[in-house]
Amino acid sequence: xxxxxxxxxxxxxxxxxxxxxxxxxxxxxxxxxxxxxxxxxxxxxxxxxxxxxxxxxxxxxxxxxxxxxxxxxxxxxxxxxxxxxxxxxxxxxxxxxxxxxxxxxxxxxxxxxxxxxxxxxxxxxxxxxxxxxxxxxxxxxxxxxxxxxxxxxxxxxxxxxxxxxxxxxxxxxxxxxxxxxxxxxxxxxxxxxxxxxxxxxxxxxxxxxxxxxxxxxxxxxxxxxxxxxxxxxxxxxxxxxxxxxxxxxxxxxxxxxxxxxxxxxxxxxxxxxxxxxxxxxxxxxxxxxxxxxxxxxxxxxxxxxxxxxxxxxxxxxxxxxxxxxxxxxxxxxxxxxxxxxxxxxxxxxxxxxxxxxxxxxxxxxxxxxxxxxxxxxxxxxxxxxxxxxxxxxxxxxxxxxxxxxxxxxxxxxxxxxxxxxxxxxxxxxxxxxxxxxxxxxxxxxxxxxxxxxxxxxxxxxxxxxxxxxxxxxxxxxxxxxxxxxxxxxxxxxxxxxxxxxxxxxxxxxxxxxxxxxxxxxxxxxxxxxxxxxxxxxxxxxxxxxxxxxxxxxxxxxxxxxxxxxxxxxxxxxxxxxxxxxxxxxxxxxxxxxxxxxxxxxxxxxxxxxxxxxxxxxxxxxxxxxxxxxxxxxxxxxxxxxxxxx
Length: 645
Prior knowledge:
Radius of gyration: 28 Å
Number of strands: 2
Order of helices and strands: HHEEHHHHHHHHHHHHHHHHHHHHHHHH
Distance between the termini: 42 Å
Oligomer: single chain
C-alpha cells in the first residue's frame, strides 16, 4: 500500500488536469461526472489504506528527490499516520459528498469547467497538505489551497461582491502564510532539516522548554494557523467568503481549509509543548474567538453568514483544545464539526436555491414552502451544533473540550468563555431554524430534492448524529475509542476530578435547552421591533473591517499614492524637465540655423519617447492578474529556452 499513497492527492489532481486540458471537448454533465469520479477514487484509496492496516502501522512513500542543493536533498514524499489518516478520510469523504451535491446544485451554471477544475484542484491541495512528510511540501499544499479558495470564493467574479470577497480572502490569508513561511525559514536555519519527524525530534533534543527560539518559531506557525483557520485577529475574510457557491462553503469552510490551521498545530504539537506561553496563547485565542463568532452570529440576517460566524466560533473550540494539550479532542471536534457544518451549509444552500437565491432569513421565513428534507437535515445539524445531549455528535466532542479546559492554566476563565459561547451557539442556531422554517408562511411543501443533493444530506445527517458515540464523556460507561487510539501520537487529555467533571457535563447538557428558550425570546423581541442590544455592532463583526480600514488599508493607500506622486513628480517629470532644459540650453548655445532646428526636433522627439515609455511601463502595473501571469509565463519560457539553447 505504501507505493499507492500518491493516488490520494494524485487522482483529484489528475482530474483537474484532464478537465483543464480536455474540458472543452466534454459536455457539462460529463465534466461533473469526471470530477466526481476523481474525488471518489481518492476516497476509495483512503478506504483501502484503512483495510491495509494504516491505522496500526504508519505508511510512507518517497517519490523522488525534489531538489538537490549540496548536501540538502528534500524529498517529495508522503506519510500516512493516524493523524493524517483521519484528516484524509474527512477531506476525501466530505469532498466526495460535496462533489455529488454540486452535480445538481451547479447544473444550470455555464462555466462548470472552471468550477470543477478548481474544486478538484482544491481537494488535491488539501490532501497534499495533510500527507506531506516535510514542511516544504506541506507549504506547497498550503498555498495551493489558498489559490483555489480565491478562485472558488470569487467564482461569480462578474459580481463585484464575489470578486472582492475572493481578493479579501487571498490577501488576509497571505498575512498568515507569510508568518508560516518565516517560521519554516527559522526552523530550517536552526536544524537544516525540513522532514517533519526529524525536525520535531531535533527540536525536542536541542531546545529547552520555554526557549526563545521555540517561542518565536511557534508564534510564527500560530500566525499561519490563525490566518488559514480564521481566528482572531485574521478572521475577517471568512464571513465575506460566503459569496461563493454553497457547496464551496461546505467544503472549504467546514471540512478542509479552515481546519488546516488546526491540523498544522496538531502536527507540530511537540514544538508548542516547548513553548508554554505560545500554547496558552493558542487556548486564549480560541476562547476569545468562540465568544466573538457566536455573538456576531446572533445578529446576522444573512442565512450563510450565520453559519460563517458559527464556523469561526467552532474552530475556536478546536484551538482551545489544542492550547489545553487535548490534541485528540481537537481532532474529535474537527471530525464532528465537518459533518454537521457541511450538513448545515448544504441544507441552507438547498433552501436558498429553492427560494430563488434569497439569503435574508426573515424573507425566507415569510416565503416558507422549503424542501422538507432540507428542513429536517438542517434541524439535525443545528441540534448537533448546539450540542443537544446524548443524541448528537456535537455534544460529545464539545462536552469533552469544556471539561478538559477546566484543568488548563486559568482553566475556570477559559471554561467560562467556552460555556458562554456554547449558550450563544444554541441561541443563534435555533433562532435561525425557527425564523426560516417556522415563519409566518404555511410550512406544507411538496418540494423534493434531486438524488445527488438528497443522498449527501442524508449521509451527513446520519454522521452528525452517530459519529460522537465512538467517544463517550469522561466517567461514562461505554466506548472510549478515540483518545486511546491517538495516545501514542498525541497523548491524553487532562480532566478534573470526576465530581467536577460530572458537574461540568450537567451544565453543558443544560445549555442547549436554555439557548432554545432564549432564542424564542429573542425572536419575539425582533418581531416586536426590539432588536438585540448592539445589534449593528455585532452584525458588522464587532467592526473589525472598519477598524482595519481606518488603521491599515487607508494609511497604506495614502502612502502608496504619496510615493507614486513623488516618483512621478520628482523622478519622472523632474528628470524630463531637467533633460529638456539642459538640451534647450545646449541648443541655444549652438544656435546656428539648421543645426538649431535639428536639435529642437530631436529634443521634442526624445521627450515624447521618454513620456511614452513611462506611460507604457505604467500600464504593466494595472492589477490584472491574467496579464501578470502572461508576462511571468513569457519570461519563464524565454529563460528556459535560453538555458536549453
